[in-house]
Amino acid sequence: MRLFLFIMRAYYNGQRYDNFRITQYNGQHFLPLMKIFVMKPLEIDPEYVELMKSIGNEIKDLRTKKGISYTKMAEEIGISRNGYNSIELAKSNFQFLTLLRILKYHNISFFQFIDSLKR
After folding, report:
1. What's the mean per-residue pLDDT of the chain?
2. Is residue 71 domain-shared with residue 25, that is, in the same domain?
3. Where does residue 112 rank: exposed (0-12), middle (13-18), buried (19+ CB within 10 A)?
4. What is the DSSP string of 20-40?
């Protein structure tokens, strides 16, 4: 009995999917044993990296002024701690509604937030 690992990469709606299949060869056929899909996050367009860093830094400043951890903040707005941390580190192409939830938590309007980025 031989085991084989097949790796395939596909792109769908801008997301990268890695497909790993572990199969067994019985002399005539490949028999699937396990299939694993891994989705890679979207990469931020280099043109917007500095803007995303500014947004992340401002969000982090708001959180640290309140003296709460990023884990607690993520829990408060209803996203994963890794997702929230990725926003602060500018490693995530986050949803606009997520930004609005963060701002609502801090009682800041979107326009006030944008003005704070200009400084």
Report:
1. 80
2. no
3. exposed
4. EEEEEE-SS-EEEEEEEEEEE
pLDDT in the model for residue 112: 92
Number of domains in the chain: 2
SS3 103: helix
Taking only the tens place, the pLDDT of each residue in 59-112 is 999 999 999 999 999 999 998 888 899 899 988 778 888 999 999 999 999 999
How confident is the model over 75-87, as pLDDT tens digits?
999 988 888 998 9
The answer to whether residues 81 and 71 touch, using CB atoms and an 8 Å cutoff, is: yes
As separate numbers, helices (DSSP H) first and strands (DSSP E) second, the chain gives 5, 3
Distances (CA, A) of 39 to 13, 74, 94: 12, 21, 15
Q: Is the same domain home to 54 and 103? A: yes
H or E element at residue 3:
strand 2-12
3-state secondary structure of 107: coil
